[in-house]
C-alpha cells in the first residue's frame, strides 16, 4: 500500500488446531529462509557495486548539497539498475528461490518478502555506518498478501490461507463486538489485503489475522477540539497547554510497574548463564574476549527467557495503551498542535565528553537518558498523535528548538534566561513562579507562524488565562500528593 494512502487495521484472533499451527509455523520458517537468502544475494551485489572504481569516484565527488549532487545521484541510480538493485529486480530474484517451497509459499507472499528485503537494503545503501540484519530463528512472524482475493482471503467466519481454512474468533462481549459492527462489516468493500501474524503470549504461540482497510473510517472513534495546543515533551514527562486546560503528566506511568519484575528475571537468567558457561567468563566476572565456544543454556534459562519476553510484551502493550489514551485526550483540546523538534536518539546515546573522575579510580558516568527513553517512548507517543491527526487532515507542527528556546524565554522581559536542568520552576521579575514545563508548553502554543520564534503579543493576551489554569493544576497535583501519598518524578517539581 502506498504511504500517502489512508488505511486502518482490524485484528482478529484465530482458532487454531495443533496441526494447523504446525503448518503456519512451517510457512513462517520458509518465509524466514527466503528473506535471509535474498538478503544475502543482494548484499553481495551491493558490495560488488560499491567496490567498483566508478562508484568510488562518484561517491567521493558528492558535496552533500542538493543543488550540485543531483546529477551524481542520477549516475549512481543508473549503476543500481545495472546491478539489479531495484524493488522489481528483487521480485525477479526471489522467484527461483521460491520454487524450493512450492505448495507452501504463494507468489504474492514471496513478492511481499522481496519488498521487505528491498526496504531493508535501501535503508543502508550509501550509508557505510549502517548494516542489514538477518532474521533469527523464530523472529519472522508475519506473512502478508497483496490483494484481498489472493494468498490470504477473509471470508467472514474464516480465513483461507492456501489450503488451510482458519476459523475467526469474534468477541462475545457486546461492547467489543459493536466495534466490529461499526468498522469491520460496513467496510469490507474497502478491504485491501490480509496478514497472518504470530505472537508469543504467556509463552505460547497465538495467531491472528490483520485486515488492512483503505480509508479513514476509523476517525469516527475520535473527537477533536478547536484552538492552539502546545506540547513540551521530555524523556519522562509531557506538559500540555491549551485554551481550555493544562496538563502535566508522567509518560507511560503504568508500564513502569514491570521494571522490578524484569530486573529479578534478568538476575536469575544471569546466574543460570554463568553456572552453565564457566568457560566464557574471567575470574572477575567479565566475559572473555575472543572465546568462540558455544553458549550452553539450560532448560531453566530458556523458561526464564520466555517469561522475560512475556513481561516485555506486557510492558509494551501497557505503554501503547497509555500513549493512545493520552493522545485521545490531547486531541480534544484543539486543532493546531505545536511541539519542539527533539532528537531523542541523540539524547539516548552516551556522552562523548572527556572522562571525568569524581573520586579516586572512579569516573563520572557518561550515560544519559537511554533507559528513560526506552521505557517511556516519547517519540512513539508523538508518532501516535501525528497518525491520529492525519485522520482529520491535520499535522503536528514542529517548531525550531534552537531559535525558539522555549525553556529559556521570558515573555515578560522578552529575554532568554538559561536555567540548570535541576531548576523546575521559572521565576519572573515580579516574583511570580510557574512550573517550567507547563510554561514551556504555553510558549510553544504561542509560537509565530514561521515556527522559529515566540509571539510575545500572543503570550501577553493568553497569559492571564494560562496562569489561572496553571495554579489550579498545581494545586490539584499537590492535593493528590497529600491525600494519596502519590510519588511524582523529581523532574515535575511537585
Task: Report the oligomer.
Answer: single chain
By secondary-structure content and strand pairing, the structural class works out as alpha+beta
Amino- and carboxy-terminal Cα gap? 47 Å
* Helix-residue proportion: 40-55%
Alpha-carbon Rg, integer: 27 Å
According to DSSP, the number of beta strands is 18
What is the overall pLDDT average? Answer: 88
The amount of beta strand, in percent, is 15-25%
Query: Low-confidence runs (pLDDT<50, min 5 residues)?
Result: none
The main pleated sheet reads as: 7 strands, antiparallel
Quick structural gist:
By secondary structure, the protein is α+β, with helices and mostly antiparallel strands. It has 2 domains: 7-219, no CATH class; 228-269 and 304-354 and 369-492, no CATH class. The protein has 14 helices and 18 strands.
Amino acid at each position: 500500500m502506498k504511504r500517502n494512502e489512508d488505511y486502518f487495521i482490524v485484528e482478529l484472533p484465530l482458532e487454531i488446531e495443533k496441526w494447523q499451527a504446525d503448518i503456519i509455523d512451517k510457512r513462517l520458517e520458509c518465509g524466514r529462509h527466503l528473506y535471509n537468502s535474498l538478503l544475502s544475494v543482494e548484499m553481495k551485489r551491493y558490495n560488488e557495486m560499491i567496490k567498483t572504481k566508478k562508484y568510488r569516484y562518484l561517491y567521493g565527488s558528492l558535496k552533500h548539497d542538493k543543488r550540485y549532487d543531483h546529477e551524481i545521484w542520477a549516475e549512481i541510480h543508473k549503476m543500481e539498475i545495472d546491478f539489479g538493485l531495484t524493488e522489481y529486480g528483487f521480485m525477479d530474484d526471489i522467484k527461483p528461490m521460491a520454487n524450493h517451497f512450492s505448495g507452501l509459499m504463494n507468489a504474492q507472499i514471496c513478492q511481499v518478502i522481496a519488498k521487505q528485503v528491498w526496504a531493508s537494503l535501501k535503508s543502508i545503501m550509501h550509508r557505510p555506518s549502517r548494516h542489514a540484519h538477518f532474521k533469527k530463528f523464530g523472529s519472522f512472524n508475519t506473512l502478508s498478501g497483496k490483494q484481498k482475493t489472493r494468498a490470504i482471503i477473509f471470508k467472514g467466519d474464516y480465513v483461507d490461507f492456501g489450503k488451510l481454512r482458519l476459523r475467526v474468533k469474534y468477541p462475545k462481549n457486546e461492547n467489543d463486538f459493536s466495534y466490529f459492527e461499526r468498522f469491520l462489516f460496513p467496510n469490507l468493500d474497502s478491504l485491501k489485503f490480509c496478514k497472518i501474524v504470530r505472537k508469543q503470549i504467556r509463552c505460547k504461540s497465538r495467531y491472528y489475522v490483520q485486515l488492512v482497510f483503505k480509508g479513514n473510517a476509523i476517525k469516527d472513534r475520535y473527537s477533536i477540539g478547536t484552538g492552539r495546543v502546545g506540547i513540551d515533551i521530555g524523556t519522562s514527562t509531557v506538559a500540555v497547554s491549551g485554551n481550555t486546560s493544562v496538563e502535566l503528566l508522567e509518560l507511560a506511568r503504568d508500564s513502569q510497574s514491570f521494571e522490578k519484575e524484569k530486573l529479578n528475571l534478568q538476575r536469575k537468567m544471569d546466574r543460570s548463564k554463568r553456572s552453565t558457561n564457566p568457560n566464557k567468563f574471567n575470574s572477575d566476572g567479565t566475559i572473555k574476549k575472543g572465546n568462540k565456544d558455544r553458549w550452553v543454556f539450560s532448560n531453566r534459562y530458556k523458561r526464564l527467557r520466555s517469561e522475560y519476553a512475556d513481561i516485555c510484551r506486557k510492558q509494551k502493550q501497557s505503554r501503547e495503551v497509555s500513549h493512545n489514551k493520552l493522545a485521545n485526550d490531547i486531541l480534544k483540546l484543539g486543532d493546531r498542535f505545536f511541539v519542539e523538534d527533539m532528537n531523542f536518539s541523540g539524547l539516548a546515546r552516551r556522552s562523548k565528553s572527556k572522562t571525568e573522575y569524581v573520586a579516586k579510580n572512579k569516573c563520572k558516568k557518561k550515560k544519559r537518558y537511554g533507559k528513560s527513553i526506552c521505557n517511556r517512548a516519547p517519540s512513539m507517543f508523538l508518532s501516535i498523535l501525528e497518525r491520529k491527526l492525519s485522520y482529520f487532515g491535520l499535522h503536528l507542527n514542529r517548531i525550531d528548538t534552537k531559535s525558539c528556546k522555549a525553556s529559556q524565554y521570558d515573555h515578560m522581559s522578552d529575554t532568554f534566561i538559561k536555567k540548570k536542568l535541576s531548576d523546575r520552576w521559572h521565576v519572573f521579575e515580579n516574583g511570580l513562579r510557574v512550573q517550567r514545563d507547563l510554561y514551556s508548553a504555553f510558549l510553544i502554543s504561542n509560537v509565530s507562524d514561521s515556527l522559529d520564534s515566540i509571539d510575545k503579543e500572543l503570550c501577553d493576551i493568553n497569559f492571564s488565562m494560562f496562569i489561572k489554569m496553571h495554579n489550579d493544576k498545581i494545586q490539584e497535583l499537590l492535593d493528590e500528593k497529600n491525600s494519596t501519598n502519590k510519588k511524582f518524578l523529581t523532574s515535575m517539581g511537585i
